[in-house]
Amino acid sequence: MNLLEIDPAMRFVGIDPATTTGVVALDIEGNVLLQTAIRGKGPKVAGGISTPQLVSLQNQLYQLLQSGDEILKEDAAPGTQKGITTGMIHGNLRTIIHRKGLGFNLIMPNAVKKYVAVTGWTGEPGSKRRLKDKEKKEAMAEAVESHFGYTHPSNDVVDAYIIARIALNLYRMREYMPLLDTQPYQIEVIESILNKA
Q1: Which domain CATH number covers 66?
Q2: Maximum distance among all Cα pairs of the chain, rounded to whole angstroms
Q3: What is the DSSP letter of 134?
Q4: How far apart are CA 189 and CA 108, in angstroms?
Q5: What is the pLDDT of residues 110-136, one digit of tens each?
Q6: Cα–Cα distance measured from residue 56 to residue 8, given in angstroms and rounded to the nearest whole number
Q7: What predicted TM-score, i.e. pTM, was given to this entire model?
Q8: By residue range, what is the domain housing residue 101?
Q9: Which residues, at least 6 apart from 112, have a Cβ–Cβ distance to it below 8 Å?
Q10: Which of 89, 100, 128, 187 is in Cβ range 3.0-4.6 Å of 123 for a Cys bridge?
């Protein structure tokens, strides 16, 4: 397929679901068309998300998605600490994508980190320790800036940007087009999704 045959309105959307959900859309060349963090509006509930917040989050995502979008959504991390809230958010966002008449692929959080060479660990062999929440987010932001020159104040948007890059390169690989991201670890991530599809 050559670039002239691609619908110029086609977008490659990365979604990082959480109570604050990052959404990024790129064009075929990797230019940012949309970058936002959405959060459900409504009364809060202790330790979770209320039904009005879920509905608000759904409605916001529904309005952001367009016909023909190629979507990659981060899946829930195994053993997540807030399983019920995570399950509700992920399930509801899947429903919205389906209601919009769109399909999507899933990517695990560790594969998103791998795409920008973040291991989740720091230190030398023999004295390594796992990165904590804030440290992990900082490492991801630094890796994205180093790999792509992209920055954003929201960690959710930064993660969604990586996911959108993967969606774009997944499409390019499927269509036998040159990839924009060609590190061996990036190609491994793309191929692992392609082989599941």
Answers
A1: 3.30.420.10
A2: 53
A3: H
A4: 10
A5: 999 999 998 877 777 777 777 787 888
A6: 30
A7: 0.91
A8: 3-196
A9: 74, 159, 162, 163, 166
A10: 128
